[in-house]
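<amino_acid_chain>
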Amino acid sequence: MSKYAYSRISPRAWPRLLPCLILAVALGGWLGWWWSLPLVLLALYLVVRYRDPYREIPSTPLAVVSPVDATVLATERGRCPYLDREGLCLRLGVDRYGAYSLRSPVEGKVLDLGGAPTEESCCGRMRVETDEGDEVIVVLKGGRWGRRGVVRVPVGERVGQGQRLGSVRGVDEVRVHLHASARLKVEADTHVQAGSDILALLTHE
């Protein structure tokens, strides 16, 4: 998508943002701009909350990009609870003031997780299979007020790397499950941007 045609604010913001701006202008013209200041501040808050900046998607083959603006909390190796295999799990602490959208870490087809176990405080998850047969699992973990249904892509749909898939508001942590052979490109405490920073490279020997 052209960066000039890219929506920098999530469409979900406009039903709240437009009335706020209209009321601010009307109130400022009627009673004075000091009276509209709370509405202006609310509008600025909504812009920050729903901002969705353009991101340059890397062209690196077999790259797994970050699905969210976040800080890497940990990288863990062990048995994957979703695919019953040795795996690599990247735990990402979501940036509260980061971009609004959840993005696909790889290009591929969205598959059903079937009867896979649900982690505690899980508020969304998805499974993407690449054209090379690699499977990547993304799990969203919310806090006390975490919302449901933040992944808005149906099973069977094809997604592009870095494509916007839903919202991460109300999500505290995102976990990305990869095959154990994946080659890490980040370490703990690294800050990553959704859609543009590479977490790992999928390998085929």
Observations:
- The helical segments are 14-31, 33-50.
